[in-house]
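Whiteboard transcription, Tuesday session. T.W. wrote the structure tokens on the left side:
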């Protein structure tokens, strides 16, 4: 399986958890909205019941004030009754219970009593009006209204508390459902991630150990098998291909190196032959040797010249070494010092050195040679005559 697919698979529980959280949140939001609507309705009903009782008591107060002669304006009473009608119309639009219906009936009875008392008051029968609002039936009805209001308030309060408890329950259920979904998803995702990391780490450790082993031992071998992850298998196959290619390249380089070593040995032998031929020693008589110098004398050829002339002088028991310097390309300080060492060596062996073929450009450079170290001749016959 591809590494990216494994990563997506390990993260899929979190995606599922997010989807579940979204579903739970949407469902909980609907339930919370309904619960909040119920709470608002209960709170409004509770406030309206309390306000209705206050309006009823306020109407009772205004009626008593009017009958007592302390209040002349009846507009407030009309406004109170208008507001009460609005409350009662709202009660009629909903599925009101027994308490609401009984409260409406009691209020209508009290309004009828108030109207009767005000009628007697308007007719001037003040005693009858006062008797009507002070009767036992009137106060019993007023107490009943008060008790009904308290009962309605307690009922609405209980409903309000139940709605609030339900709202808290919905919120808690949504929270715990989301928490459980997240916990399960995180646990599964962590387990899959740890498994993936373990497989990748194990495969990388195997490849690293194989690479270190092959690098330190410099031997050819096969890499260990790795996980079924495509990228790791491709990485392992790529490393194995590099190892195989490097092994083949090393074999080719070894073969080429061996061939180059054989060729180098041949070239060294050829160079030794060329060096030997570049400083030939030719006998010009029983006790005379001839050495022509051609080209440039580097450090190696200078050393070879010294050894060649001295060895030939000793082996042939020569008394004269004729050295032709006409073929030298340059006559620098190093070449002059080489000639001086050769002349001193020949003299120490009991022979003399004769320089032949001195060119005009070389004459001034040879003027500073130690006196008596060399004899000079124009050509080889002259050198032979000097040697005889």
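and on the right, the sequence the group agreed on:
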């Amino acid at each position: 399986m591809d590494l990216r697919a494994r990563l997506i698979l390990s993260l899929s529980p979190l995606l599922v958890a997010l989807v579940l959280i979204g579903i739970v949140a949407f469902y909980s939001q609907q339930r919370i909205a309904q619960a909040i609507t119920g709470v608002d309705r209960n709170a409004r009903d509770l406030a309206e019941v309390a306000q209705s009782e206050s309006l009823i008591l306020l109407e009772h107060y205004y009626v008593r004030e009017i009958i007592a002669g302390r209040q002349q304006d009846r507009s407030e009473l009309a406004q109170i009754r208008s507001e009460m009608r609005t409350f009662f119309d709202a009660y009629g639009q909903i599925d009101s219970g027994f308490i609401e219906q009984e409260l409406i009936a009691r209020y209508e009875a009290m309004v009828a009593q108030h109207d009767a008392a005000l009628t007697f008051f308007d007719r001037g029968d003040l005693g009858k009006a006062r008797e009507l609002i002070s009767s036992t039936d009137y106060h019993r009805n007023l107490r009943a209204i008060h008790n009904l209001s308290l009962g309605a308030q307690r009922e609405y309060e209980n409903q309000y508390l139940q709605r609030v408890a339900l709202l808290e329950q919905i919120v808690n259920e949504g929270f715990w459902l989301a928490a459980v979904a997240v916990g399960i998803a995180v646990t599964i995702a962590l387990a899959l991630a740890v498994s993936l990391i373990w497989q990748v780490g194990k495969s990388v450790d195997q490849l690293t150990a194989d690479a270190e082993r092959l690098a330190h031992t410099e031997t050819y071998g096969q890499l260990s098998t790795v996980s079924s992850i495509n990228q790791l298998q491709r990485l392992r196959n790529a490393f194995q291909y590099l190892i195989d290619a490097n092994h083949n390249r090393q074999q080719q380089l070894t073969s080429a190196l061996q061939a180059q070593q054989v060729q180098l040995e041949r070239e060294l032998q050829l160079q030794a032959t060329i060096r030997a031929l570049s400083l030939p020693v030719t006998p010009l008589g029983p006790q005379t040797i001839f050495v022509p110098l051609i080209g440039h004398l580097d450090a190696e050829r200078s050393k070879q010249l010294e050894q060649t002339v001295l060895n030939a002088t000793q082996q042939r028991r020569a008394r004269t070494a004729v050295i032709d310097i006409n073929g030298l390309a340059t006559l620098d300080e190093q070449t002059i010092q080489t000639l001086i060492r050769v002349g001193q060596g020949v003299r120490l062996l009991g022979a003399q050195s004769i320089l032949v073929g001195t060119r005009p450009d070389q004459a001034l450079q040879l003027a500073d040679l130690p006196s008596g170290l060399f004899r000079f001749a124009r050509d080889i016959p002259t050198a032979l005559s000097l040697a005889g």
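Someone added at the bottom: Residues 220-278 form one domain.
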